[in-house]
Amino acid sequence: MMKNLLKMIFVMAMATGISLIVELFGVGSQSIVMMFLLGVLFTAVLTRSRGWAVSSAVLATLVFILLFTEPRYTLHVYNGADLILLGFFLVTAIVAGTITSRLQTQMELASSNEKTAQTMYKIALGFLSASGTNSVIKIGKDMLHNYVGIDGDIILGEKPIEGKTEYPIMSASGLQGKLVLNEQSEDQKVLVIQALCTQLGIALEREKLVKEREEIRMAMEKERQRSMLLRSIAHDLRSPLTALSGSGSLLSDNYDKLTDEERKDLACNVSEETVWLIDLVENILGMTRITEDHLVLKKQDEVIDDIVGEAIKHTERLFKENKLNVRLPDEILTAPMDGKLIAQVIINLLENAVCHTKRGTLVELSVYADNGRIAVSVSDNGDGVPDKIRSKLFEKFATQNEDIVDGRMGLGLGLAICKAIVEAHGGSIRYADNKPHGAVFTFMIPMEDSHE
């Protein structure tokens, strides 16, 4: 109040001083009245108050009567023209001061509304990039500090908070939480806080819907894979079981009629089909352990030549009609590994090379050192991998045909198991085209354990 009073006195003093100066140059009372009218307008602008504008008009009238009407230095006015002039001046000054004050107030309100609108736009824009509930909460706290100037907390759920100012965070599905302020906010900031709560509610609702949609997608994917696994197991078991049943029945019913060579062939068929079933079950169990995070490595220093030898011995039956060329390094290469699992990787790669190529295909197994890592490469000169499954080659159930057909194409688990085992050893596996045609699968594992 004292500040506005000093402003009014200063403006009126300036108007009076200028009026006294211009009167010396013969300027009439009508022009002097305009000088005081300007003073009233300046007072209204500086004080931004209708009351101070009216007060300055009254003060200007008194000063004009005292200094510029006859008789001078009194509050008496004998000239009728001066009275009319003063009456018009007082009314004009009050109206002009009021209008100016209101216009100033409206301009300030418009400016404040513009800032509020910009703030609300920034708040809405800020939540667009939020991903995850924690990110939404962090952005909300930062905005509360930046745009309201106070700190607070965002409490999810309906937990009651006592002794603090809180605002509900609502969404279409109901109460999402509360915005709790650490201190009282200014009245003009309430609209910003409410807008912040609205955007928080929308963002939290969006994250909730995204989470629910992802859960539904995961459940559907899990059900799809379960159905595919059951269907694939039923198919893959049918062929070897049929062969076992046929060979067993033939041996049982015609044992005496069969020659030794025929009985030997049937026994070999039984053995091969049994090994196939064992490999199938091993892959299923291996993927189950990997999916449930039960893959435990029993590492120890192993010579890679021994592991390769074990894998080749296990897959000898596959190369009766195919050729296998093995290239081992001259030096002895060792690495910390789970020998059984690495052998399983090599077995799966060799089986893939045979099962997905024609009879008589040349398969090459190469082992070499590469910058502190042991590299194992399995290549063939078949038709290679179709473009449509390359992007998901190391995923579960990645097969050349989605439809189940007769033949041993496998469950599509082999490469997924290989990838999981190799990565558990801190290594990597990749696919490349063989030149001029065929496929090359290479995996690498470090020669030294990075965890030591």
TrEMBL record:
<feature type="domain" description="Histidine kinase">
    <location>
        <begin position="232"/>
        <end position="449"/>
    </location>
</feature>
<dbReference type="InterPro" id="IPR052023">
    <property type="entry name" value="Histidine_kinase_KdpD"/>
</dbReference>
<dbReference type="Pfam" id="PF02518">
    <property type="entry name" value="HATPase_c"/>
</dbReference>
<keyword id="KW-0472">Membrane</keyword>
<keyword id="KW-0547">Nucleotide-binding</keyword>
<dbReference type="InterPro" id="IPR036097">
    <property type="entry name" value="HisK_dim/P_sf"/>
</dbReference>
<dbReference type="InterPro" id="IPR038318">
    <property type="entry name" value="KdpD_sf"/>
</dbReference>
<dbReference type="InterPro" id="IPR025201">
    <property type="entry name" value="KdpD_TM"/>
</dbReference>
<feature type="transmembrane region" description="Helical">
    <location>
        <begin position="20"/>
        <end position="46"/>
    </location>
</feature>
<keyword id="KW-0808">Transferase</keyword>
<dbReference type="GO" id="GO:0005886">
    <property type="term" value="C:plasma membrane"/>
</dbReference>
<keyword id="KW-1133">Transmembrane helix</keyword>
<keyword id="KW-0902">Two-component regulatory system</keyword>
<dbReference type="GO" id="GO:0000155">
    <property type="term" value="F:phosphorelay sensor kinase activity"/>
</dbReference>
<dbReference type="InterPro" id="IPR004358">
    <property type="entry name" value="Sig_transdc_His_kin-like_C"/>
</dbReference>
<keyword id="KW-0812">Transmembrane</keyword>
<dbReference type="InterPro" id="IPR036890">
    <property type="entry name" value="HATPase_C_sf"/>
</dbReference>
<keyword id="KW-0597">Phosphoprotein</keyword>
<protein>
    <recommendedName>
        <fullName>histidine kinase</fullName>
        <ecNumber>2.7.13.3</ecNumber>
    </recommendedName>
</protein>
<dbReference type="InterPro" id="IPR005467">
    <property type="entry name" value="His_kinase_dom"/>
</dbReference>
<keyword id="KW-0418">Kinase</keyword>
<feature type="transmembrane region" description="Helical">
    <location>
        <begin position="81"/>
        <end position="99"/>
    </location>
</feature>
<dbReference type="InterPro" id="IPR003661">
    <property type="entry name" value="HisK_dim/P_dom"/>
</dbReference>
<dbReference type="Pfam" id="PF00512">
    <property type="entry name" value="HisKA"/>
</dbReference>
<keyword id="KW-0067">ATP-binding</keyword>
<feature type="transmembrane region" description="Helical">
    <location>
        <begin position="52"/>
        <end position="69"/>
    </location>
</feature>
<dbReference type="GO" id="GO:0005524">
    <property type="term" value="F:ATP binding"/>
</dbReference>
<dbReference type="Pfam" id="PF13493">
    <property type="entry name" value="DUF4118"/>
</dbReference>
<dbReference type="InterPro" id="IPR003594">
    <property type="entry name" value="HATPase_dom"/>
</dbReference>
